[in-house]
Amino acid sequence: MDEADTRRGVDTVNARWGNLQAILAGDFLLSRASEIAASLGTEVAGLLARTIGRLCEGQIEELRHTYNAARPEPSYLSSISGKTASLYATAARIGGLVAELDRPIIDALTEYGEAYGMVFQIVDDLLDITATDEQLGKPAGHDMVEGVYTLPVLRTLQAGGVAAVELNALLGKPLDMAEREKALGIVRSNGGFTAAMSVAREWADRAEAACELLPASVATDVLRAAPSALLASL
Q1: For a surface tag, which of 68, 86, 140, 151 has the fewest beta carbons within 10 Å of its beta carbon?
Q2: Pairing relationship of beta strands 6-7 and 10-11 according to DSSP bridges
């Protein structure tokens, strides 16, 4: 959807084979996922259907605020909850359902997946600001260029002052390379990054707290450590 040529350092499907084949490939994978879900029972199939709805709602919420420098922070959080965290929550819940765990454990796994997904997306958005093109496997600042204003950008604008005024003057339209570099410099050198990190830490704490309800095991230890490992990648 963002028309990027690369993702994680490799060619995207749409860049290599075109949008038509990318759409058909995505639809095919979705159909196979639905087939597998149906074989696992009606609850899993229904859960997958609801998750697809949440993914679409989250992406639509993001599209509604494209190039909107006044985007409310709750809009951003709602969007990433739908387009990213819901997928992690569903993956965790399906694992619990298929393993026939007790309902409190399944609910704890779902809560963990949701919180971990929030951390993942906020960290991804922070990396778009701080990492190099080579580290990202795609151009840094791509979100701002495309008019998607994420948490570090929103927090920089909320802080006010000269930095917010300068950044606001750049936003609201596509950015050329010079404007992109200037906008990145403003967000990197002011408090938006630190403020966004604190929100990611809050979600990491929620994910780790959910692990307290899980049985003691090596797997639980790994789950507990995973959110902090994401934050350490910054």
Answers
A1: 68
A2: antiparallel
Do 137 and 7 form a contact (C-beta atoms < 8 A)? yes
Which region holds residue 71: left if phi is over 0, alpha if psi is between -120 and 50, else beta?
Answer: beta
What is the pLDDT of the chain when averaged over all its residues?
A: 93
Is pLDDT above 70 for 134? no
Beta bridge partner(s), residue 11: 6
- 28 CB-side CA count, 13 A: 6
- For tokens 């899993």, name the residue: 44
Contact criterion met (CB below 8 Å) for 80 and 121: yes
The distance in angstroms from the start CA to the end CA of the chain is 25
How far apart are the C-alpha atoms of 52 and 86, rounded to whole Å? 9
Token pair belonging to 37: 């879900």
Kindly give, in sequence order, each residue whose CB lies less than 8 Å from that of residue 61, ignoring residues fewer than 6 positions away: 75, 78, 79, 82
Query: What stretch(es) of the chain map to CATH 1.10.600.10?
Result: 42-232
